[in-house]
Amino acid sequence: DVKVTQSSRYLVKRTGEKVFLECVQDMDHENMFWYRQDPGLGLRLIYFSYDVKMKEKGDIPEGYSVSREKKERFSLILESASTNQTSMYLCASSPLPDTGELFFGEGSRLTVL
Amino acid sequence: AQSVTQLGSHVSVSEGALVLLRCNYSSSVPPYLFWYVQYPNQGLQLLLKYTSAATLVKGINGFEAEFKKSETSFHLTKPSAHMSDAAEYFCAVKWRGASKIIFGSGTRLSIRP
Asked: Could you report the per-residue pLDDT of A54-111, keeping only the tens digit for each?
């Protein structure tokens, strides 16, 4: 089975802190994604990557950056956390050919105080 | 703009009753269609997917969905609800040639004893 592992299930950070959310997948998938999930808004795409060292902005990239130095790892970075970034963050991966089917991690719930 | 609409942010049914969760999408161009389920404090997992084969798609846990091109709909059903079906359900669409999958805002399903 595909496994997508997010390093932290729950984090509490202070405003202005730098936050790293790590995601690792073990099925050699080319595509990786970071979503943010908020009640009533569904899932919104922050960034995605189709290859190592490659990244593309999603629908809400402001305030975030990403890093993909290795195929299996995709990191989400909040340079200076703010309270409006309190949310559930979901990492996902998918193989090629791209049919849209996503494999999700269990999520990282971030609270910014 | 392409969009996915889930009617009803919250649906409540009695145990043993029919479950019907509605999903409509904005374009008549045949897409890839998905239903994902999210149990509390977990990531999303694939329930079923339509990829242009049979229009009635069977998924896990007794769920099925029917693709109706004329109605641009992909409603999710289950004949008899079980307490373990309580979760949030997301409809998602990927149009062929598009780089992103679009999620609906989700429907929370509650099951009454």
From this structure: 999 999 999 999 999 999 999 999 999 999 999 999 999 998 777 778 999 999 999 9
- Does A105 sit within 8 Å of B43, measured CB to CB? yes
Q: Tell me if the bond preceding A95 is cis, omega within 30° of 0.
A: no
pLDDT of residue B28: 64
Q: How confident is the model at residue B110 (pLDDT cuts 50, 70, 90)?
A: very high
**DSSP string spanning chain A?**
---EEES-SEEEE-TT--EEE-EEESS--SEEEEEEEETTTEEEEEEEESSTT--EE-S--TT-EEEEEETTEEEEEESS--GGG-EEEEEEEE-SS--S--EE---EEEEE-
For residue B29, is pLDDT > 90? no
**How close is the nearest chain B Cα to the Cα of A83, in Å?**
21
Task: Tokens for B82, please give them.
Answer: 């079980």
What tens digit of pLDDT does each residue of B30-41 get? 678 999 999 988
In A, which residues are within 8 Å of B36 by CB distance? 102, 104
How many angstroms away from the CA of B96 is the closest CA of chain A?
8
Give the closest residue to A59 by CA, choosing from B62, B102, B113, B86. B102
Residues of A in contact with B99 (CB under 8 A): 48, 56
